[in-house]
């Protein structure tokens, strides 16, 4: 049985290896999320882990478990970014040559961070699965030791050290919610939790655009998705591993899915309520809890924030869209007579409504704009949707025809 490749002893060895290398990350109680969900919510802050995600645990444990012959050939891995940084960091500590194949669309911040740890980065067109195929090809030519991102017992054992920290840090734990891509994280954590406290519920969360493990459990066999479509690149895997699937099938109680809008909402709430930065994969578990994808009312629950390596461009879009969705940011277009003073009168109305003007665009040249008219676009910071309605009503009463730009 594939599960036999993972043991509690391996997880305990991994914990010793990681001592002084990986952080014992904080467990933070969230009053806000507890009130919103009806559960007692604790956030396991692996986004604050060295290299910005939990991946260093498994990568470091694997690299340090290699024999002299394997080390002499160097290491190679495929990753969308977080495993890449973990392997690169571990290889640098061990003094080993390291090649990482990453998707061409991986966040620039993750590519640069991986290179910063001394790895040679090769970009492959497509997503993780294409990068994996390219890495296998390079491994066959070079003979380097392949460090799989999830389907490896030493990698899974490293991720399982998180469970040991949870058992040390929190009493009467009822449930743990964990993001799922290839399944290495939830396999290690669930295996250890169920070994020591079988009554703890373990719930996995996948992006709706990459539900391979969800479908595999449903079909009771490995299922490969034709493609993935999610900005949560850390869990955008088309096919889970045979080893992780075997463990998850035995140790995980439930897997649910969340869509990208729900993940984005969780990222924004983490920023606002907890001042925590999480990437898409990292926030998936909180999204499942807050959007009631699983029923945990009254249960002491840990949400595992698996990583914080989010691209700042994606983060800015999430913030802007989130503000617009909640009525705290709006773009309004209106026509004004092209005469001196009319723009200032429009802005005075916005000020009278106590809206903060972020930017103003004034155009009288575009052919679709009537002669002797100018089109003004205002970007306003607002309080809520009711405030936006007040602004629109005020402009309409003053003979403007405002339009909200979506």
Task: Name the features.
406 residues, alpha/beta, six-stranded mixed β-sheet, four-stranded parallel β-sheet, 16 helices
Could you give a quick summary of the protein structure above?
The protein is α/β, with parallel strands linked by helices and 406 residues long.
What does this structure look like?
With 406 residues, this protein is of the alpha/beta class. It is built from 16 helices and 14 strands. It has helices at residues 8-18, 31-37, 55-64, 68-72, 82-94, 108-116, 128-142, 153-169, 184-196, 212-219, 242-251, 260-274, 280-290, 312-325, 342-352, 385-397, and strands at 27-30, 40-45, 75-78, 98-103, 120-124, 145-146, 175-179, 201-207, 254-258, 300-305, 329-337, 356-363, 373-381, 403-404. Strands 1-2-10-7-8-9 form a six-stranded mixed β-sheet, sandwiched between helices. The chain has a four-stranded parallel β-sheet with strand order 5-4-3-6, with helices on both faces. Helix 1 (8-18) crosses helix 8 (153-169). The longest helix has 17 residues, at 153-169. The model has no long low-confidence stretch (mean pLDDT 94).
């Amino acid at each position: 049985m594939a599960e036999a490749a993972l043991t509690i002893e391996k997880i305990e060895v991994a914990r010793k290896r990681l001592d002084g290398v990986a952080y014992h990350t904080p467990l933070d109680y969230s009053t806000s999320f507890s009130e919103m969900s009806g559960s007692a919510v604790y956030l396991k802050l692996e986004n604050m882990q060295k290299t910005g995600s939990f991946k260093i645990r498994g990568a470091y444990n694997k690299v340090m478990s290699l024999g002299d012959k394997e080390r002499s050939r160097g290491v190679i891995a495929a990753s969308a970014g977080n495993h890449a940084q973990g392997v690169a960091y571990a290889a640098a500590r061990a003094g080993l040559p390291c090649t990482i194949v990453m998707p061409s669309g991986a966040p620039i911040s993750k590519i640069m961070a991986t290179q910063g740890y001394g790895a040679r980065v090769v970009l492959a067109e497509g997503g993780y699965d294409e990068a994996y195929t390219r890495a296998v090809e390079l491994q066959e030519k070079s003979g380097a030791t392949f460090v799989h991102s999830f389907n490896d017992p030493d990698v899974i054992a490293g991720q399982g050290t998180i469970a040991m920290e949870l058992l040390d840090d929190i009493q009467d734990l009822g449930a743990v919610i964990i993001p799922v891509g290839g399944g290495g994280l939830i396999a290690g954590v669930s295996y250890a939790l169920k070994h020591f406290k079988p009554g703890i519920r373990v719930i996995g969360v996948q992006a709706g655009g990459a539900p391979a493990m969800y479908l595999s459990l449903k079909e009771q066999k490995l299922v490969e998705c034709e493609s993935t479509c999610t900005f949560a690149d850390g869990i955008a895997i088309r096919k889970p591993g045979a080893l992780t699937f075997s463990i998850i099938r035995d140790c995980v109680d439930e897997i649910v899915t969340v869509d990208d809008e729900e993940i984005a909402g969780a990222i924004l709430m983490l920023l606002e309520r907890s001042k925590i930065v999480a990437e898409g994969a990292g926030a998936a578990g909180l999204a499942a809890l807050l959007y009631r994808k699983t029923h945990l009312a009254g249960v002491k629950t840990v949400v595992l924030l698996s990583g914080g390596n989010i691209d700042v461009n994606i983060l800015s879009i999430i913030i802007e869209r989130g503000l617009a969705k909640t009525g705290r940011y709006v773009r309004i277009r209106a026509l004004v007579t092209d005469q001196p003073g009319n723009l200032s009168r429009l802005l005075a109305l916005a000020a009278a409504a106590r809206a903060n003007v972020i930017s103003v665009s004034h155009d009288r040249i575009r052919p679709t704009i009537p002669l002797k008219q100018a089109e003004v676009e205002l970007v306003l910071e607002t309080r809520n949707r009711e405030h936006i309605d007040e602004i629109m009503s005020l402009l309409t009463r003053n003979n403007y025809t405002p339009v909200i730009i979506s």
